[in-house]
Design brief:
Helix content is 96%, strand content 0%. The protein starts with a helix and ends with a helix. α1 runs antiparallel to α2 (57-142). It is an all-alpha fold. The protein has a domain at 2-101. It is rod-shaped and about 120 Å long.
Length: 143
């Protein structure tokens, strides 16, 4: 019975750890999305700035350079976002696997508990039968 309790506790701890990891990854994903929005806004502002100053070649080169930097940063953020999506999908799969394992353990525990109750009933019945046998022997000896 102690093994069952330990198994349930381990399954519960594994589930909690998986939930915490999923929450952490979700938070990281949200931060990355916010950062992507910031960079996108910066890019739009830079494009608007470039369109507002036609004819200024030197200023345009600097803006073009900054635009390339933002595009590179955007590409890195997209890669990060893809990695985060993949990690989230992997963790979701792991979480589902852990939930399936936990459900299996629960059913095993229920089965073992039922078996344990049956054994207790049998022991009680055996004790009752032995008690009746003793009473019967005593009764036979008295007569």
């Amino acid at each position: 019975m102690a093994d069952l309790a330990e198994t349930v506790e381990m399954a519960t701890l594994d589930k909690e750890m998986a939930e915490e990891k999923a929450e952490t990854l979700q938070l990281e994903l949200e931060v990355t999305k916010e950062r992507l929005e910031e960079v996108t806004l910066d890019l739009e502002l830079l494009k608007a700035e470039m369109q507002g100053k036609p004819g200024d070649q030197q200023e345009g080169n600097v803006s073009s350079y900054e635009l390339k930097q933002l595009e590179q940063q955007n590409a890195r953020l997209r890669e990060t976002l893809v990695r985060m999506r993949d990690l989230t999908a992997h963790d979701k799969h792991e979480f589902q696997k852990l939930m399936k394992d936990m459900d299996q353990k629960k059913s095993e525990i229920a089965e073992l508990s039922s078996l344990f109750r049956s054994i207790l009933k049998l022991r009680f019945s055996l004790i009752t039968v032995r008690t009746y046998q003793m009473h019967f022997k005593c009764f036979v000896n008295i007569e």
